[in-house]
Structures are given as C-alpha cells and as structure tokens.
C-alpha cells in the first residue's frame, strides 16, 4: 500500500447523498480479474447519461479530492468501488458519513476517507463551486482538512492512521502473530464444520 | 453486566487483543465467489502465500452464472474468464468449489445454510455484503472487501474493531399477507440506509421467534441495507430442527454437545445494547419501495410521497432524484404502478419457502399479458426440491419462466437484466439506479406481492386478487 501523509489538490463537489457502490461502479464492470483499470467504470451511468455531471465538467478535471453527501459507499461490498476511485486519480473522499464496508475497503487500499460534519461539507461544496481551483489539503499527520483559510479537524483512530502513514500491509502485521492463531486453532470446538478440497 | 449475543460471539473469537490495536478475530468459515476473489488469490500468489485453512473455505459460482443453459460454457467471454479464474484458483490453492452445473451449486448465502455449514456461534465472512444472511443462525456474519478476502485466505483471521450493539425488537403476530420481507423493509424505511451504521444488530422478540429459518435469513440478509455491520437472531429449537441431519451438522454426541453450547448463545437478561429500535408487528402491512434506495419504501396501500414532505434537505433532494429516475409522480397510489417484469429469487427470497408461497398465489392463475416473470431458485438443491414438489409446473403453467440457480436479475451480471426504462417488482434486496440493468427501475417486494403483481400487472398483494 502507498503511504499517505499530506495531500493537496483540487476537489469535486458531488452533491448527492446515499451514493451506493452500484453507482460508483456498476456490476458489469466487476467482471475483470485484475486490480487496475476500473476508471472507465467510475460513476459510469451518471457520466454517460448526464452531460452536466460534475465529473464531465472541465473545470473539475484533475481533481483528486471527492466531496460527497452523507452515506457514501452504501450497498455492495465491492472493493472495485475503491479501485475505480483511485484509478481515476482520487486520493481522498470527504463525506459526513461513510458506509462501513466501503470505509474499511478504502483504508485498506490507501484511499483516505475523511468524515466532516454536514454543515462543513456544505461550506466546502459552496467554496469549490465558487472557485474550482480551490486547493484542499487533507493532512493525515495533523488529522486536518484545510482550504481557503478554513481548518477542520477530523477523527481517525491512531492505529489506522499509523498503518496509512507507514503504508503497511495488514497481512504482514497479522503474520507476526501466527503463534496466537495456532493456539486459538488448537482450542476450537471439535464439531465445527470443515471441508476437504 | 451481562453480555449481548453479539458480544458473546465476538469475545469467543478474539485471537489476540492489545490496547490501541484492533482485535484479531478468528474466522470459522470463509465463503468465496468468482467476483470478489480473483485479485485476492493474485495477491497470495505474488506474496508466495498459501491459503492458510482451505478446510474452512468454500467456493461457488453464482454472480455471473447464466440461468438458462447452466450446463454449457458461459457465452460472455469476460464472465467466462472470471468463472474460469475461480476454478484455476481453487484448484491451485486446494479450495473446495461447487461449479456451475453441480448439484450443490447456488448462491453462496443459500448453499452455506443448506449444507449445514452455517451454524450457531460461528464467525462467517464472504466478499459479499449479504453475508449477514448467516446471522439468522446466531452466527456473527458479515461482508468484506477483496483486501480482507486476501487477509482471511492468508491467515483465517481479520483485524477489526468491535462494533457497537443494537436491538431491533418486534413483538406480536404478523397480520395476514405480511412476510419477513415486509418486516425488514419497514425497519429500513424507519431507520434509513445509514441507521444501522457501526452496529451489530440483534433482531429480538416474538415476531422473529415465530419465523422459519428462511424468514429469519430474509431479515438478516437485508441488515446491510440499513448499514448494519451484521444482523443476527439467537438460535432456538427452530434453528436446531433446521440443522439436524444436514451434511455438515454435528452428529451423535457432538450434536448434543453442540446444542448445549448453542443454547447459551442468548443475550443475557442484564445485558445492555448501545441502541434500540422497536416495532409493533400488528401495525405492519405489505411493504414496497418507490425510490432508489431500500429506505425509500412505504406500505402498498400508500401513495408515492411528495418530496416536499421530507423535512431533511438531503432526503428531499434524494426523493426528487429518485422520482425522476423511477418515472413516478407524487401522489400516485402505489397499487397503480404497472410493471414489465417480476423477478422471484436472490439470496433474500430465493429459498424453497419463498417459492412455495409464490406458487400458492399463482396456482391456477396467469401472469398478466405483457409481463415477464422469472423464477430463479437460489440453489440447484432448491431447484430440485421445488421440482419434486411440482412447483415448477405451477410456474410454467402460469406463464412464468423457471430457471437454473444463481444471483440472476438481482444485479444483472448475467444476461438477466432490465432494459432501459423497464420496471420490475423484485424480491431481491436493492433498488439502486441501474442495479438490474442500466436505466432499469426496481420496486422491492415480498414473494407474495411479487406473485400478485405478476397476475395483475401492477403492484398488488394477494388480497387484491
């Protein structure tokens, strides 16, 4: 996983709530067996049916921070939604509330999810729309979002922050505890189901 | 203070706990399908890691599977490659696979329970958000992303912070024509799609106690639709009766020991939940969705709501967008909405009891002219059972299409899709924009409402026939 420390870039205002992962990437794009190349699926239905959709507007091209309404990433567990966002170039998503599975997937794949109160998100939308060149800084070291003189703290647990700052692979961390796993396995109830290949 | 069922399940699976770190949780069963696993197996290969516990891993093919000609290779080359990739991965890593055409193949959340692999007290994960289904047995079951699939394959564990706990209590008898699907749609409409976010939910009360295992699975299945991390129901005699004699259920002395343990898996009387939601079963009615998320639902007797009636601005904007997408006008009675397609199936309502209830309504009647009705069993075993009971003959005599097992039109990764502008009544779990095909419009309904809608051609309940 790539390290995340501080990122500054322009942002896209996505004034929609309940953006489910079927909208982020429709199911027909999930058939690939690779981990990259999903950018064309990102918000595909909206990009192809709404000429005025924010991702189609030239003033937002090159933006790296997505600012969305509440309940972003609901529904399907598809991690392809995260890959589509990162393949497109997003480094961080800001929303008042994320669905659990999406948030977990993002933080495992190095896409920073930042929760800010709805009122602050509204203000950020207004500011980006007034000036699409607004530079938005997402600072994981200070756990802050900053733009145009605005400074807002966000919360993220220390462990996840450390893992992102170091770019650490979860599996590698768990494999340090194989003894504990082996001990647990010894004590499992004998009737629990198992299969042979 | 006592413990909730969810806390008992969590605590009994903690491999390692350290201050300032997530708990390391042991996973008793890992279910795998073709869509969310290829990148995970690739990750193992690149790191030179084996599957740590192939004996606790089961794979099947469900999302891409065509429901006609299931015994032939898939026509779509991209879908075929994905399924073939799963077969190669399972062979290489020693994972048991039930492929297309196998008597045990089916939707991953249908085959786990029917094989007896889903048991009380277990932790069960799958790269699929509807894994919460298995919570119906008093298991801790939840969906995970592909990075976590790789983690479980490599270690049989997951690092996780313990979510909070919530009780959803529903007491009383369900009125005639009201099904478990209506109960969960009513819960979601009450809480919204984010209401359960961050919680492990336990469904409690006499309404759930009276439900069959199929009904409980329908309820737990849709936990994710209101954002819950997991949904569960304490195991009882109904659970034990369902499990007894199944392929992987314990036998003999092991059975007795297991049942004794399973009986302890109840929330203690003095336990406290972090949040509670209560509904009165007697007030519930057949429920349908009118919008583009599962929280946008109303009783069938209601009308399409006026977006202006929503106090919250985000809800109002969301309702406006939804009506526009759905091609609906505020104030239209829901019963007046005509459909082109009726879909019966999915991990929510593709089990034998669902098919029986549809058959009972549709027997001796005809699917309305111009309506296409697809009946897709959740597994090949459900298919066989339905055919043994003669249900397939009832469906085809009525003019419905009887298909082979898979996820099918729930998400349209196979050829079963809505065309742009087409409208369905669907027993599945998501009415998102384009979920059943680009431009398709979905109304979520119970199997009973699906059957009555197929007959009348517009949203209806059996009482309307």
Describe this structure in words.
The complex is a heterodimer of chains A (197) and B (465). Chain A is an alpha/beta fold. Chain A is built from eight helices and eight strands, in the order ββααβαβαβαβββααα. In chain A, β7 and β8 (150-153) form a beta hairpin. The longest helix of chain A is centred in the middle third of the chain and has 13 residues, at 118-130. With 465 residues, chain B is α/β, with parallel strands linked by helices. Chain B contains 16 helices and 19 strands. Chain B has helices at residues 5-11, 38-47, 77-93, 108-114, 146-155, 180-191, 206-209, 213-221, 237-243, 252-262, 313-326, 346-349, 352-362, 380-388, 391-398, 447-456, and strands spanning 14-16, 23-26, 29-32, 57-60, 96-98, 123-126, 140-143, 157-160, 164-171, 199-204, 230-232, 275-280, 287-289, 297-299, 341-344, 372-375, 401-402, 423-426, 441-444. Chain B has a five-stranded parallel sheet. A five-stranded parallel sheet of chain B has the order 17-16-15-18-19, with helices on one face. In chain B, α3 (77-93) links the parallel β4 and β5 (96-98). In chain B, α2 (38-47) packs across α5 (146-155) and α13 (352-362) packs parallel to α16 (447-456). The mean pLDDT of chain B is 97. Chains A and B meet through α4, α7 and α8 of A and α2, α3, α5, α10 and α11 of B.
List keywords for this structure.
heterodimer, A: 197 residues, alpha/beta, four-stranded antiparallel beta sheet, four-stranded parallel beta sheet, 8 helices, B: 465 residues, five-stranded parallel beta sheet, 16 helices, 32% helix
Structural class of chain A: alpha/beta
> How many E-type strands of chain B?
19
What is the CA-CA span between the terminal residues of chain B? 52 Å
Beta-strand share of residues of chain B: 15-25%
Please state the structural category of chain B. Answer: alpha/beta
């Amino acid at each position: 996983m790539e390290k995340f420390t501080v990122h500054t870039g322009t942002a896209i205002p996505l004034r929609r709530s309940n953006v489910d992962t079927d909208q982020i990437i429709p199911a027909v794009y999930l058939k690939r067996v690779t981990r990259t190349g999903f950018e064309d699926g990102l918000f595909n239905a909206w990009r192809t049916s709404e000429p005025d959709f924010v991702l189609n507007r030239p003033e937002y091209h090159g933006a790296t921070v997505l600012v969305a309404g509440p309940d972003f990433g609901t529904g399907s567990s598809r991690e392809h939604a995260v890959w589509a966002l990162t393949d497109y170039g997003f480094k961080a998503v800001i929303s008042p509330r994320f669905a659990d599975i999406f948030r977990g997937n993002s933080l495992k794949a190095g896409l920073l999810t930042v929760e800010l109160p709805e009122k602050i998100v509204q203000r950020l939308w207004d500011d980006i729309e007034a000036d699409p060149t607004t530079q938005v800084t997402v600072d994981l070291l200070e756990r802050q979002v900053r733009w145009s003189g605005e400074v807002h703290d966000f919360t993220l647990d220390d462990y996840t922050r450390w893992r992102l700052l170091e770019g650490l692979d979860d599996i590698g961390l768990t494999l340090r505890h194989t003894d504990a796993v082996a001990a647990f396995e010894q004590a499992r109830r004998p009737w629990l189901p198992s299969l042979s290949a | 203070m006592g413990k909730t069922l969810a806390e008992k399940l969590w605590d009994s699976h903690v491999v390692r706990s350290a201050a300032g770190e997530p708990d390391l949780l042991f996973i008793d069963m890992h279910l795998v399908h073709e869509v969310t696993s290829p990148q995970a197996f690739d990750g193992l290969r690149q790191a030179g890691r084996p599957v740590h516990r192939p004996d606790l891993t089961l794979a099947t093919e469900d999302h891409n599977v065509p429901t006609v000609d299931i015994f032939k290779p898939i026509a779509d080359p991209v879908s075929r490659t994905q399924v073939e990739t799963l077969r190669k991965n399972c062979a290489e890593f020693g994972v048991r696979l039930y492929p297309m055409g196998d008597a045990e193949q089916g939707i991953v959340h249908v085959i786990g329970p029917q094989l007896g692999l889903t048991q009380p007290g277990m932790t069960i994960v799958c790269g699929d958000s509807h894994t919460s289904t298995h919570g119906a047995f008093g298991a801790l079951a939840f969906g995970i992303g592909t990075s976590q699939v790789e983690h479980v394959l490599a270690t049989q564990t997951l690092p996780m912070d313990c979510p909070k706990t919530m009780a959803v209590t529903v007491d009383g008898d369900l009125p005639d024509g009201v099904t478990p699907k209506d109960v969960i749609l009513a819960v979601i409409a009450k809480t919204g799609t984010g209401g359960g976010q961050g919680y492990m939910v336990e469904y409690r009360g006499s309404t759930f106690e009276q439900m069959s295992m199929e009904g409980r699975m329908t309820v737990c299945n849709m936990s994710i639709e209101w954002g819950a991390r997991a949904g569960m129901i304490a195991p009882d005699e109904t659970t034990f009766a369902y499990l007894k004699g199944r392929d992987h259920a314990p036998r003999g002395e092991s059975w007795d020991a297991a049942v004794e343990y399973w009986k302890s898996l109840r929330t203690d009387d003095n336990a406290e939940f972090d949040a509670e939601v209560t509904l009165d079963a007697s007030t519930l009615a057949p429920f349908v969705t009118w919008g583009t998320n599962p929280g946008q639902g109303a009783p069938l007797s209601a009308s399409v709501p006026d977006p202006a009636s929503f106090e919250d601005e985000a809800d109002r904007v969301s309702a406006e967008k939804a009506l526009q997408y759905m091609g609906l006008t505020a104030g239209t009675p829901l019963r007046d909405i005509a459909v082109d397609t009726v879909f019966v199936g999915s991990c929510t309502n593709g089990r034998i009891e669902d098919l029986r209830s549809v058959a009972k309504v549709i027997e001796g009647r005809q699917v309305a002219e111009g309506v296409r009705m697809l009946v897709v069993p959740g597994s090949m075993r459900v298919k066989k059972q339905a055919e043994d009971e003669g249900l397939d003959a009832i469906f085809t005599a009525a003019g419905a299409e009887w298909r082979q097992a898979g996820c099918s039109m729930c998400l349209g990764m196979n050829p079963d899709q809505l065309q742009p502008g087409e409208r369905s009544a669907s027993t599945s779990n998501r009415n998102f924009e384009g979920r059943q095909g680009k431009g398709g419009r979905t109304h979520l309904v119970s199997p009973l409402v699906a059957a009555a809608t197929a007959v009348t051609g517009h949203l209806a309940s059996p009482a309307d026939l």
